[in-house]
């Protein structure tokens, strides 16, 4: 019987339709993501044109060849009304272009036509080659599908095959088109330091809505992610188109609604201050712009993205494992670190069940505050007379791994590195250098700087048993000059800087395959799919106040998975003066990858007892939270004051329902919570951590989802967790 099944499965996969198909007679390509269909084609003018993006299509016969749009008087050409997949700036085109160039003779016109196509079935890549109508400038437009995931990636490679250099002034990864219509609503994430990933939804008006970074890194202000709906989708229902750009430098996503009711979203390198010189035979590759579609609402859109990010974006070694429970010293000791103090904290952390002890800022150079030391990545001998080895051995002897904070891209003017290499900091000659947090940004685009930083980090890893780096970046760029190269090439710094950061991480990983990395930039300033391909986790926000965190985490969850979302339990009153109970703080953190950032020297016996219990609980559900499916049951933006999230294990065997009530009017019950994602016919054993769930000991999935759960939450900042085990 088993053999028959295996044979059946084998033959099924052998005969399953390929994810990319060409309908040669109609000059169409059909891309099947497993959850949606994407169709593009070549129109009668030989332009690459968008045809369809939506629910899976069942019949090829329904598809008609691409056909260019009608012009509108002499003002809007047919080209400007055609949904081109990769429109260059040339001819009568007025939409945001995907590519814009200037030739050395002053010509600034590029008109791309279809030349050829190839499908690389093994990689699930469709490559369409476009060429300018006259000059030897080519663009390879790439579509990579991840079969079954619901996700498709667009990117492009601009090639200069002329005999002269040319300057690329804009290079976008791709354009996503919504079905024609008006009043599309754009959902995105905005914020600031200590207030990242706030969810915003706005109906698009005619014109453009731009989200971007001009700061050198991804930025706290916007996240390179969007979702689009017709204004009628919710967390559980409705058509949602979404996308995420994999780039950690200057990026831009523009949602544009044309006068002809076409809504398009284009994204890639930010064209602000952008110029990239392509010498003959050189190419410029744009970052991947991932996109997906669902008709099951924002909740399903998030789950599609989360699975994709965990299984396809995360580095190989990180995919199978859950994140270790971490302690970080920053909020406890700030810069005041030394071997005795850190060892004492480590002893306490180990007792709670911490698995990774991370020493934060202050261990190197003359670093006693934020005025000095960045750049001097050698251990401070006064603070650590035995080098790092003494502390690391202590941490390891307590059964924990050791992690270390670094901020490799930065330099304090008061450092040996800056005194030796003032030219290594980003600057314009003879102009002031703007400091922030008393530091300057190293020009990581330079080869020598890149090699130096790689060498420093590699040495740290070779000489010490360091299992984890927290890689920080505490300011944005200013004066992004690069005097060592010609003025024409200086703007390439924006791109080369990021490439070199990626290269350093990739090389460190190659040399030290087990090292884990957290991407931090003063909190969540560098969170995107580009960095997530290289790191194990990200620091969500420097705001660790649990109630504020609910909204930060909610926004984060629209685009990024719980597994990478670092969430610390810290002390109260926190940065905004608010005090929430320790249990509440733990439960908020337990919806992500838990860290403890409290000063354990100030904890009382009962705090240790509660923490130990919560850590034990967390370890029982963390696989479900980190590798499972998220259902947002009640939003922290809901006027009821109730926030509830639910996580269902990938194999369906366990579920965890979290509920938080920020305030209660005396006598009024918290709203009922309706679980989702359970198996209706299965029976679940219920375990409340504190008897605050009125749902019995056993219940069927259908009863729980239909009847809901009444949590007995009272007062201010009450919280609970209910664990469901499928029988
Ligand atoms: C900013 C980070 O976000 C904090 O967690 C901490 O590491 C400090 N930098 C240290 O300077």
Descriptive notes:
This protein has 727 residues and is of the alpha+beta class. Helices cover 22% and strands 29% of the residues. The strands form 7 sheets. Strands 6, 7, 8, 9, 11, 12, 14, 15, 19 and 20 form a 10-stranded antiparallel β-sheet that branches. An 8-stranded parallel barrel has the order 21-22-23-26-27-28-29-30, surrounded by 5 helices. Helix 12 (582-589) links the parallel strand 29 (565-569) and strand 30. It binds (2R,3S,4R,5S)-2-(hydroxymethyl)piperidine-3,4,5-triol.
Number of helices: 14
According to DSSP, the number of beta strands is 38
* Poorly predicted spans: 1-14
Rg computed from alpha carbons, rounded to a whole number of angstroms: 27 Å
| Average residue pLDDT | 96
The biggest sheet amounts to: 10 strands, antiparallel
Based on secondary structure, the structural category is alpha+beta
**What is the strand content?**
25-35%
Distinct ligand kinds: (2R,3S,4R,5S)-2-(hydroxymethyl)piperidine-3,4,5-triol
- Please report the distance between the alpha carbons of the first and last residues: 26 Å
Task: Set out the fold topology.
Blueprint: H1 2-15, E1 20-23, E2 28-32, E3 37-42, E4 48-54, E5 99-102, E6 112-120, E7 125-132, E8 137-146, E9 151-160, E10 166-177, E11 185-190, E12 198-203, E13 207-213, E14 225-229, E15 240-245, E16 251-257, E17 263-269, E18 276-278, E19 283-285, E20 289-294, H2 297-313, H3 316-319, E21 326-328, H4 330-333, H5 339-352, E22 356-359, H6 387-397, E23 401-406, E24 410-411, H7 416-420, E25 440-441, H8 447-463, E26 468-471, H9 493-511, E27 516-519, H10 529-532, E28 537-539, H11 546-559, E29 565-569, H12 582-589, E30 593-596, H13 605-627, E31 629-634, E32 642-648, E33 654-661, E34 683-688, E35 693-694, E36 698-700, H14 701-707, E37 710-711, E38 718-726
Parallel strand pairs: 21-22, 21-30, 22-23, 23-26, 26-27, 27-28, 28-29, 29-30
Antiparallel strand pairs: 1-2, 2-3, 3-4, 5-10, 6-7, 7-8, 8-9, 9-19, 9-20, 10-17, 10-18, 11-12, 11-14, 13-16, 14-15, 15-20, 16-17, 24-25, 31-32, 32-33, 33-38, 34-36, 34-38, 35-37
Helix pairs in contact: 5-6, 8-9, 11-12, 12-13
Bound molecules: (2R,3S,4R,5S)-2-(hydroxymethyl)piperidine-3,4,5-triol.
